[in-house]
């Protein structure tokens, strides 16, 4: 079967690439060093309609197909993984509200999210809770017509500037999801700096001290927080990260092809050395393989195939682990230059490692994929994704 983009998808891809080359690539290293994303860049990003990419046109979104959304993530990830992270978390919240929000929540929030008037962040991780997301410790207690939140969230992407958070908390022992605006009484926000990669993603800690929010800010039903709201959003997040990893890998490949065509050692260009050519060959093959897995996951999502969840995990696992190796080789090819901020490959390596941790670590993906593999190949019936696997995703 030949994998070929439609004319519309190719045009969109060209648009994305032009935007990234003109508006992101020139200053991406600077954003990384400053650990900051300029508001004007986010405004341009929103003006292009990228923050509302997956939302229906009825709410002001672009309603692009899932493959085109993947291409957007690849191109943005090629330029700046931090900005791609904004696309990820903003889209996760948008998708969760579109799927699980009530009518009034959709009518109020979705147009604002689509236009970029409001920036959203996804608040699940905590100081003591990462992969074991069902064990969140933040609590929500119903008091009259309000919920009172107490607890702490950590590693919240763009938490420093987000206008609204999708917060997950235990309510009477039931994991539930709530919308919390950044000016809610009892919410304080503390910036996180000095992280390894995606350093411009403006991470933050959220502290809830008797934080009162309206009762109508509950998203979905009590107890829907993890199994429904978070799980569906995280699946979109993994898809975004998989494509974003491909973007980093592609950036590494392009940087290495340029560098080895300009740099000379022992009287010839680096690209003439056999071991360099071997490394470039492996990069090319692995970038193409990762991209094909992302295409497969996207296609299955597009047609509503339930196996898309597992195929997305496989794509995320392969793309993120492969990209770390590609980025490591890219630094090696650049030598001492690759260890400086003058060349982007140092940033690519740091960002690539983050891809192995976020939206389900490499080890969680390995456990999940192996469980599915045993179920698939030992069962005589058509394989589905078991509930015990979904519980970890």
UniProtKB/TrEMBL annotation:
- Domain Acyl-CoA dehydrogenase/oxidase N-terminal intervals: 6-117
Q: What are the Acyl-CoA oxidase/dehydrogenase middle domain coordinates in residue numbering?
A: 121-211
Record keywords? FAD, Flavoprotein, Oxidoreductase
Q: Which residues does the UniProt record annotate as the domain Acyl-CoA dehydrogenase/oxidase C-terminal? A: 228-371
Name the cofactor(s) required for activity, per the record. Answer: FAD
Q: Pfam family of this protein, just one?
A: Acyl-CoA_dh_M
* Domain of life of the native organism: Bacteria
Among InterPro entries, the record links this protein to: Acyl-CoA_Oxase/DH_mid-dom (IPR006091), Acyl-CoA_Oxase/DH_mid-dom_sf (IPR046373), AcylCo_DH-like_C (IPR036250), AcylCo_DH/oxidase_C (IPR009075), AcylCoA_DH/ox_N (IPR013786), AcylCoA_DH/ox_N_sf (IPR037069), AcylCoA_DH/oxidase_NM_dom_sf (IPR009100)
Q: Which family does it belong to?
A: Belongs to the acyl-CoA dehydrogenase family.
**PANTHER family for the chain:** ACYL-COA DEHYDROGENASE, ISOVALERYL-COA DEHYDROGENASE, MITOCHONDRIAL-RELATED
Q: What is this protein called?
A: Acyl-CoA dehydrogenase family protein
Origin species: Nostoc favosum CHAB5714
- Taxonomic lineage of this organism? Bacteria, Bacillati, Cyanobacteriota, Cyanophyceae, Nostocales
